[in-house]
Design a protein that fits this description.
Elements lengths: L8 E6 L3 H12 L4 E5 L11 E3 L12 E5 L3 E3 L3 E3 L4 E4 L1 H7 L6 E4 L2 E4 L3 E4 L4 E9 L11 E10 L6 E4 L14 E6 L4 E11 L5 H14 L10 E7 L25 H12 L7 H19 L5 H9 L3 H9 L4 H14 L2 H11 L14
Helix pairs in contact: 1-4, 5-8, 5-9, 7-8
Length: 369
Amino acid sequence: MQAVVPHRANIVVCGAGPAGRALAYRCLRRGSTVTVIDPAPHRRWTATYAAWLDELPGWLDPAVIAARVPRPAAWGARRHELDRTYVVLDSARLQEELDIGGAQIISDRAIEVDRNAVRLASGATVTGDRVVDARGLARSPRRAEQTAYGVVVAGSRFEPLFMDWRTDNGANPAAPLSFLYAVPLGADRMLLEETCLAGRPAVDPRELRLRLEHRLRSRGIELDGTEPVERVRFPVEGGRPGGDRFGAAGGFLHPATGYSVAATLAAADTVAAGESVWPISARTVHALRTAGLRALLALPPADLPLFFDAFFTLPPHLQRAYLSGRADLRGTATAMSALFAALPARLRRPLATAVFPHRVSLPGTHSSL
């Protein structure tokens, strides 16, 4: 007979990463009883999390912001400045801010999750009035992934770069492309990271390391091998919107960028209150974003810089709608339509076929999608 954990909480949260911890924290602030299940609930966060400043909820202590970049630069084939403040979070302070000390914390692995009960690897069963799965997405060969290899260097010799697709990283021109991401982690440190935005398969981190070292040498920076390293690998597809899932597993990860932390922080109060965060507009935006990922995966590698040149020339409100408007159906659709119109004509048909594989009509150069 399976053991049953006797404490029945108002809500059971599976997963103690940023999404699960944020939800548990906001539930505790509402006075709910909370159980958190995670194999290593106190493991320290070492990943770098960033967001647009205007995405963060008002309840979040500004002290969790390690650095602010008022107008980050981006390069496709040419340089752009983004008219939006970008922030890099202090991961350790964020974890401390999302205090779940008032929850029942179970160090175990969830094996089966349903609406009111969780079966654990130990054989025990945990019950609750609600169960929310915030364990993230499992890797699979069928799922496109984002990969990155980065180093932390002293000083601020680089201007902050949200995305730099210039081809000085030594990669074979026919190989999948990667870009440089360069952001401050505070007053005297910078993360320099070679990133594969999305691939199936994604560029291997060992290849990204070689590309990063080549790129930095070409810009006059030699590494001595003692720099702290950050490795990134996670799926960018597979999340399914639903009230019993939260974070990446619940569709909060933007499939065309890999960002999810700010969206989950912003939605945590609504989910904690038991309200829906998936109106039809949000579900449709999720479908459009998934289509955007298909478009990125369908582009020939050499054309990615042109794609992002077109995106970064969109008006700031349309960039914001596509990057952050989780339920902004009108803004997302308008941004995608404007981006399509701004692309070179030769890219439109393959992108339209990728986005709408079952029904595409493109007479001449005019779309009737």
